[in-house]
Amino acid sequence: MSILGKNPLKLSVFHAENGLRLLYARDNSNPIVCLQLYIRVGSVKENTDELGYAHFLEHILFKSTESYPDNELSRKASEMGALLNAYTDFDVTCFYLILPSEELDNGMKLLSEMAFRAQFTQQDVELEKGIIIEEMHQYEAEPEMDFLEYIQNMYFEDHPLSRPVLGNRESITKATHASLMSFYRRHYVPGNAFVVAVGDFDPVQLELSLLNNFSAWAMRDIPQTNLLPYISPGWRNFQRTKKGHDYLAIALPELPESHPDSEALHIAIRYLAIGKSSILHKRLVESEKICSSVKVSSLCGNLPGVSVILFSVSQKNAEAKILSIFFDAWQNICNTLIPDSEIDLIKKDIIYSWLYSFDSVEQMADLIAAEESQGSLSRIENYGHYIESILASDVRDAILRFWIPSNMAIFYQSQKAISANMQLAIDVGRDFQVPPPRKDAPYNSVSTFRFDNHSTSFSSLEYPSYHSYTLTNGVRLIYNYIPGKNTCGFALSAPLSQLNEQMPGLNYFSTALMLYRTRQKDHDTIMHICRLYGFNIRAVHHLDSTIFKGKCNVTDLAIVLELLSEIIQEPIFDKNYLSILKNAASDDIRRERDYPISIAYKTWFNQVFGKKNNLYSATGNLSDIASIKIADCLEWFESWSLGKDFALCIVGSIEPTKLYDLCELYLGKSAIYKPIAKPNLRYELGSPHYRKVNRNLNQAIIHIGAPACPAENIDENSAFHVLSHILGGDLSSRFYQILREKYGYAYQTGFDFSSIRELGFWYAYAFCDRKHQSACLKTMQNILGELLMEGVSEQELQLAKRYLISMSRLDNENVSFKAASIANPISLGYDLDFFISREDRINAVELDVVNRLIQDYLAPELQNIFVMV
User: Which of 725, 754, 723, 714 is nearest to 834 (CA)?
Assistant: First the structure.
């Protein structure tokens, strides 16, 4: 049976009398619910004297409402064990909760309070202005984000799409309580809003909860905005002179989902520039090695926008060649059809990605909301069939209609002028005559492929949830059986890491090389298989382990395990691909110098653990990367074997006996056991001290931290994770409530704790305006000092426990993440009960243990402080 023959999401729509729409879909596989409130206002619907107001309201509605004054709303969400957040884009403002099912009605109440019971004050407004301006500073400090905002502003000129979501300093500074409340009352009306709910609930109770909480929201006129699409004046190229690494980008038209050509153009941009299978990645990154990456960013909403292709130039003076290769690829897809074989693979990529979105309540809610925002829910019913129907000729016609020189623009950021060779390449592209599209270009309705979902893979028999086996070669296999699950998660973990490699970077590059080729399959064959069956195996590098993980359709697990077996046991180490990997890693390190936040954290880390530690970087430094050879990778690979140091976890719905046979067949083969080397930590603890560096930033970046308890002490480790949440884990944490909500010093602040078996460390951070650096640092120290004097309260402890347990339910949604969460600790010497009992461990954390850890690890004499301004 075809998966596309069934609707994987059963959508219902409920209309309240005041005009509010509720869209919902049930998923009772996990006892959680995602609730989302959407207001149909974003940056494009703001008047010129209201720039940034939609985003401003997104911030300030957390401050005070009728039932939850003085930031009580965030604390209430934490008390419920709910994840609460919000975002603003071109077209909408969204407030969302992911919460335990039993808290559904309380979640509806929180959203209703923000929708029509706001009671923020002028003092709240003044405080939030500083936070938003600091958020602007943070965007400016991120080179790629800053470059994209420049592109948005220049390409769309005076059109509403040119406006940054955050607004500008002038509009934010001028905002008043009266002007924001006027905006709120005008746009926050039930007919201009909708609610989405996905998860484990009773539909009757859901509808009743909506009515109980939102019926008092009075009907008012819906604001009318006449937005016209942006029309490009013709071919353009822009240059901005700015210090730092060079950036080159090309903007191509992108269509909203409501446009009939949108998915055809989506296929075109994927073929041209998205992912390792794209033409530009193969030529610029793999063949010519003049870019470390090719990325695509979308600047599009309900109005037509652009896809921005961003080239990370890794070779000096390569810009002209990059442009020539781009224009050559563009002209080729204008002149000839993309091969049907490539079109079919891209369509599979899109459909598999769509199907995997049904594994998460949040992703399902996002999908529903995207269609509602575009004005039609019909695509939810037929999206897969619609994608299947698109032909190569449809794609070419869309390219010829929209990817024409008059709609394109080139952006270059450098301290150098545009060279003569660059200008020559630009002129060639500008003068290219695009052939006319077909006059009539009907979409073919015939499906070109189908997914097979064999019923024999599922069972009506009842089995325990967890099964533990040992394969013949010693690999430990854990199977989490979830009946009825279409998607299967897999993870193979081993204690291979930077801590037990012979030279820095060796594990990172060797494991990445293993994914590229095997004795049985070249790289193109591997990529073809992965795309044909909709899965991807990737290597994730932790400080103390490496995990090969992914997810697939449950019917394709045998194909995945066969390939995984070859990757682990029969890799071919490709010299050319090693060069590509080294080029990308080296370019990342060089570009890191343009990111103050990264540099500040690295400097603080080295201040604590010494500059020669092997804890910070998986790749090593530039000289380490340059020295790695294929022979080193082969020697590393031959020093261990697949065996009892490895743990494999599968999460899915195959019958357990069949699952064991599959794993034994592909990953249980006997081999001469070669143990993985024990970890060898290299670090030298520095004397705790304060250090400040001036880099002439417009913000201050503050880190405070010290070593902490290691993971081998399980009870203390659990308690420190709870403490970390109390201090900086969510919107109700001490650092967030005091530094951001009370004083308005920092847009971003928090407290993190990380540990491996032998070592742990904590750090608190804040990013603030440089004029607030002293006050912000002092406040951070006061928070920690008060903690040392008084400890945490029983109420804080219980709230943190409830929140962390609730978040563990969310983790269970993602089968790939869950498989990795089980396999990783088992490969490090823990047993299955370590994963199963994690909620019990959190519940068992006692107040006196948390307060003792505060005394042991947070004292001022232990702290290393680093400030960059």
Answer: 714
Residues 695 and 594: their CA atoms lie apart, in Å, by 11
List, edge to edge, every strand of the sheet that includes 690-693. 690-693, 864-868, 699-708, 759-769, 746-756
Q: Which residues pair with 240 in a beta bridge?
A: 413
Q: Over the stretch 240-284, which tens digit does the pLDDT of each residue have?
A: 999 888 999 999 999 999 999 999 999 999 999 999 999 999 999
pTM (2 decimals)? 0.93
Within 8 A by CB and 6+ apart from 235, the residues are: 405, 406, 408, 409, 430
CA distance 835 to 843: 14
**Both tokens of residue 822?**
């089980």
What values do phi and psi take at 355, rounded to 5?
A: -65, -40
- Which tokens is 684 given? 């030298």
Half-sphere exposure of 161 (CA within 13 A, CB side): 23
- β-partners of residue 552 are 488
pLDDT value, residue 556: 95
Q: How far is CA 617 from the centre of its chain?
A: 21
Dihedral over Cα of 728, 732, 735, 739: its sign: positive
For the beta sheet containing 12-15, the strands, ordered from the edge strand earlier in sequence to the opposite edge, are 12-15, 21-26, 193-199, 32-39, 93-100, 83-88
Q: Is 7 helix (H, G, I), strand (E, B) or coil?
A: coil
- Check residue 622 and give its pLDDT: 96
**What would you report as the CA-atom Rg of the chain, rounded to the nearest whole angstrom?**
27
Closest by Cα among 567, 748, 94, 753 to 373:
94
Q: Which structure tokens are listed for 5?
A: 């023959």
Q: Which residues pair with 752 in a beta bridge?
A: 763
Concatenating the DSSP letter of every residue in 205-239 gives HHHHHHHHHHTTS---PPPP--PPPP---S-EEEE
- Compute the distance between CA of residue 701 and CA of residue 348 in angstroms, rounded to an integer: 44
Where on the phi/psi map is residue 49: left (φ > 0), alpha (ψ -120 to 50), or beta? Answer: alpha
User: In degrees, to the nearest 5, what angle opens at C-alpha 502 toward C-alphas 501 and 503?
Assistant: 95
Structure tokens at 700: 């201050």
On whether the CB atoms of residues 720 and 797 are closer than 8 A, the answer is no
Secondary structure (3-state) at 838: helix
Pair 81, 810: CB distance under 8 Å: no
For residue 761, give the 3-state DSSP assignment. strand
106 φ/ψ angles, rounded to the nearest 5 degrees: -65, -35
Report whether pLDDT(483) > 90: no
- pLDDT confidence of 182, banded at 50, 70, 90? very high
